[in-house]
Amino acid sequence: MKSIYEDILKASAKGKKLLAVLIDPDKMERSYVRSFVRLISSSIATHIFVGGSEVDDQKTQALVAQIKTLIDLPVVLFPGEVSQITNDADALLFLSLISGRNPEYLIGKHIEAAAKLNGSNLEVIPTGYILIENGKETSVQRVSKTMPMSRANIPLISYTAKAGELLGMKLIYLEAGSGATHPVNHEIIMEVKDKLQIPLIVGGGIKSKAALKKTFDSGADLVVIGTAFENDSSFFNELKIPI
């Protein structure tokens, strides 16, 4: 089976930038999925992420199954809860919320997930997840009962990312949160990228092609955009040619 993680590694080594469209099952009407996926297929997107902080049971499985019939891009789970794991996807970001200190999101939920993943064909990718303050409370903050890291404390953010790598994480994900007022700033991205030997994902609050390009130029290997597409599908028209 083709390894999604190996493809990310190869792209990072070659300087090829990747773009994931995040679809939240709670925000996506099933009747709109086909047309939304058509927009994705005509853009420069390389991956589809599926997940959210608060999703009703069974919605993820149904959405992933439908997406898989419509497009050949890799579908990667970005789950906020164990119930969002489905074998219909290609891979799973096995998230550890290393910016917080709630043991449920450092190991507790992972034990629950391990039982569900036993015998699964999903490609599991250990990912260090770092929530950065963005100007408002996020659903991740509310659900996980953890505080985001201060945008001003760049050394702490960068060494938290490095600690995640040393613990064996294969990806680091810097997240400002859905609909962020402020995206992860470029000084943070550059400093974190400088510390890492593994690929860097950045998401939250990226609402324009210029902001996407700047995030890539700062060192992100893969950028995740969700709310901007949910709020304005015409944004896809800006992303039909390489950045």
Describe the overall structure.
This protein is an alpha/beta fold. It has one domain (4-228): TIM Barrel. The chain is built from nine helices and eight strands. An eight-stranded parallel barrel has the order 1-2-3-4-5-6-7-8, surrounded by five helices. Helix 8 (209-218) links the parallel strand 7 (200-203) and strand 8 (222-225). Helix 6 (154-166) packs parallel to helix 7. The chain is globular, with a radius of gyration of 16 Å. The two termini are 30 Å apart. The model has no long low-confidence stretch (mean pLDDT 94).
Q: Tell me the name of the CATH class.
A: Alpha Beta
Helix content: 25-40%
- Overall 3D shape: globular
Strand order of the largest sheet: 1-2-3-4-5-6-7-8
**Treating each run of at least 4 consecutive H or I residues as one helix, how many helices?**
9
- The CATH homologous superfamily corresponds to FMN-linked oxidoreductases
Structural class category: alpha/beta
- Strand % is 15-25%
Task: Please write the string of helix (H) and strand (E) elements.
Answer: HEHEHEEHEHHEHEHEH
| Known CATH architecture | Alpha-Beta Barrel
What's the CATH topology label? TIM Barrel
Cα Rg: 16 Å
Number of domains: 1
What assembly state would you assign to the polypeptide chains in this entry?
A: single chain
Identify low-pLDDT runs.
Answer: none
pLDDT averaged residue by residue: 94
For the secondary structure, the number of strands is: 8
Distance between the termini: 30 Å
The biggest beta sheet is recorded as: 8 strands, parallel, barrel
